[in-house]
Amino acid sequence: MIKRHPLNGANRLKLGIFSTNADGGLAITTVEERWKARWDDNVTAAQIADRAGLEFILPIARWKGFGGQTHAREWSFETFTWAAALAASTERIGLFMTVHVPVMHPLYAAKALATVDHISKGRAGLNIVCGWNPSEFAMFGIKLGEKGYDQAAEWLEIVEKAYASDQPFDYDGTYYQLKQAISRPASLQSPRPVTMNAAFGGPGRDFAAKHCEYIFTTFSELEGAERHVADIAERAARAEREVGLYTVCHVVCRETQEEAEAYYRRYALDEADHAAVETHMAGKKEFSSSHDADAYDRYRQRFAGGAGSYPLVGTPEKIAADMIRISELGYAGIALSFVNYTYELPFFCDRVLPLLEQAGLRA
């Protein structure tokens, strides 16, 4: 039944919206129209994406913001309860939850994930991450370990055992020791809901190659982006598996190129929340391996514009051409962010999706 999930549909290029659960989305800006992540707006954005035929909604897991004038991303909805509510408000779109492995016990996650899968009738998905921000984990009294993905492998094994076992089971691992554990109901998807991992470094990519259906990564330029495709394919081949590769982009789509570039400069340079951008970049640079090493020096605008992701800025035709190129390089899907999803997503869907259909990437 895992093959019935929207991410396993026929479209060659899968699309979704990213980070609607958090203040600002991926943008770190002070503009008045910035995304406030209020609940009603989350529902509206999800329903717009659902009606347009997008395949997924992906949240970020944030526990602490980056300060600055806007307290960037301090306001964010917890992803399991958020996904459960959206599951009842949508019909077709896949609903992911993002979990920090060290923060959530796998038995609790198994129960919560199965609950969302039942509410959504098999549309749940899990984004498994190990975290990078020590100050967030300090809030829980947890220190980030050096072998987070070893723990993640045990964590996911327990989730799968919980669904497969109709009798209580013991588990004696390095990170978890369970006595007479059981969790019912199991997920509708079998053996479990689809999983993804957002990884740039080697340990994360190896984990995804062995255990996940999808992996997200970033790239700095289209030229050279194919090296990530080759790297993931090689790791998946060693694990005798196939893994779909996705990326993240932030979007400014306007009638003219000049209008799009002017707005990009305004929100991501002139009116960026510069203090929050500095905090975010410094933390990612020191503790995360989620971007090319030179991205922090060369692409400051992109961190304010969309957390360092690749920018899709321009007319519908320009953006469609860039997305076609990303697909040709071997990427199976793109998670998209906007300054304001309810304002900008309808125009994107009306104008860009038909061009992707004409190119044969979507039906």
**Low-confidence parts:** none
- Element pattern in H and E: EHEHEHEHHEEEHEHEHHHHEHEHH
| Radius of gyration, whole Å | 19 Å
Structural class of the helices, strands and pairings? Answer: alpha/beta
Taken from the alpha-carbon principal axes, the silhouette is globular
Helix count, per DSSP? 14
Portion in beta strands: 15-25%
Q: Specify the biggest β-sheet.
A: 8 strands, parallel, barrel
Total DSSP E strands: 11
Helix content: 40-55%
Q: How many angstroms does the end-to-end distance come to?
A: 22 Å
Q: Mean pLDDT, nearest integer?
A: 92
Spatially, the strands of the biggest sheet line up as: 1-2-3-4-7-8-9-11
Set out the fold topology.
Elements: E1 14-18, H1 39-52, E2 56-58, H2 79-87, E3 94-100, H3 106-119, E4 124-129, H4 134-138, H5 148-164, E5 169-172, E6 177-181, E7 194-198, H6 202-211, E8 214-217, H7 226-238, E9 244-253, H8 257-270, H9 274-287, H10 295-298, H11 300-306, E10 310-314, H12 316-328, E11 333-337, H13 341-351, H14 353-358
Parallel strand pairs: 1-2, 1-11, 2-3, 3-4, 4-7, 7-8, 8-9, 9-10, 9-11
Antiparallel strand pairs: 5-6
Helix pairs in contact: 1-13, 2-3, 3-5, 5-6, 6-7, 8-11
